[in-house]
Amino acid sequence: MVKNGREVLSNIINSQIDIHTNYGGVVPEIASRKHIENIDGVIELALKKAEVTLDDITAIAVTYGPGLVGALLVGVAEAKALAFATGKPLVGVHHIEGHISANFIENKELEPPFICLVASGGHSHLVVVKDYGEYEIIGRTRDDAAGEAFDKVARAIGLGYPGGPIIDKLAKLGDPERFKFAKPHIPGLDYSFSGIKTSLLYFVRDEMAKDPEFMEKNKEDICASFQKALIDILLDKLIKAAKQTGIKEITIGGGVSANSGLRNRIEEEGKKRGWNTYLPEFKFTTDNAAMIAIAGYYHYLAGERTRLDVAPVSRIADF
After folding, report:
1. What is the C-alpha to C-alpha distance for residues 149 and 125, in angstroms, rounded to an integer?
2. Bond preceding residue 66 cis, omega within 30 of 0
3. Which residues touch 153 (CB under 8 Å, ≥6 apart)?
């Protein structure tokens, strides 16, 4: 529940991480079923914590994509039912737009225009936020997303799921300069993370052939070196984007924005380059309802409404 686009009255999250950890990643069918089981309770608790009723709500925002279509279907169906039953307007929100909007919660002074580096398990985008609800994507990944690279590497070398937090934790104990991994040479502002992932996996495979205990002996240094290389890739394009656009208001969003290495580096670069950097709170870096409600608020103010026959979309190129 969000008031005036900046004040979070409640933000209830029912996490499924513990369930999916048993399978080494998200199982779409299980995710959808758990959404069905929990969504009514989450809404009831959100209303209770915000001390409001459905009658007090002005509009209902919902993520229509991109994402796992089964999970999206549960949320969209619930939102449409509530909108129909209460007569409240429905506002559809793009998932990435939600991650960008998470920056407005902690940073009340933040106003467009600004650049947002969106890095998550499914997306890696450089976005110029020209105005509320007005975006220009100036760079995107051509293959794996940053968070996807974290998860795949962690799984492949036996660290478990979710990979990002595990690698970040181990990286704090390691030497980021110990090992070097291949970085892509992609023109423009687009990203690529498949090469660095493959470089690390081949390196570990070859070293394990010489010493079966290599990974266990060096996992902190491997994680630190991999994380540094991946952050280098992210920041290289962000620096270029800031130079090309002349924009010095810089934000980040998405699950990878919780990474301590990225957060520290972006603040360091900001001081060095004269940026004004804004970071979302840790609790608003992963998927959450508040960020979607904030994005929906500004669409609502602009007079935008979503028809009740809206369908979830698993893949959407732009927003």
Report:
1. 15
2. yes
3. 163, 167, 197, 200, 201, 226
Among the ranges given (67-76, 195-204, 308-317), the one the predictor scored with the smallest mean pLDDT: 308-317
Residue 188 to residue 169: CA distance in whole angstroms: 32
Cα–Cα nearest to 226, from 286, 301, 159, 130 = 159
Q: How high is the pLDDT of residue 23?
A: 65
> Which residues lie across from 126 on neighbouring strands?
117, 139
Per-residue confidence (pLDDT) for residue 317, from 0 to 100: 65
Question: What percentage of the chain exceeds 90 in pLDDT?
Answer: 81
Say whether pLDDT at 138 is over 70: yes
- The β-bridge partners of 93 are 63
- Report pLDDT for 268: 97
Cβ proximity of 96 and 129 under 8 Å: no
How do 134-140 and 90-94 pair as beta strands? unpaired
More confidently predicted of 314 and 203:
203
The predicted model scores a pTM of 0.91
Give, rounded to a whole angstrom, the gap between the first and last alpha carbons of the chain: 23
Q: Is the pLDDT of residue 109 over 90?
A: yes
Tell me how far apart the alpha carbons of residues 226 and 211 are, in angstroms, rounded to a whole number. 20
Interatomic CA distance for residues 308 and 25, integer angstroms: 32
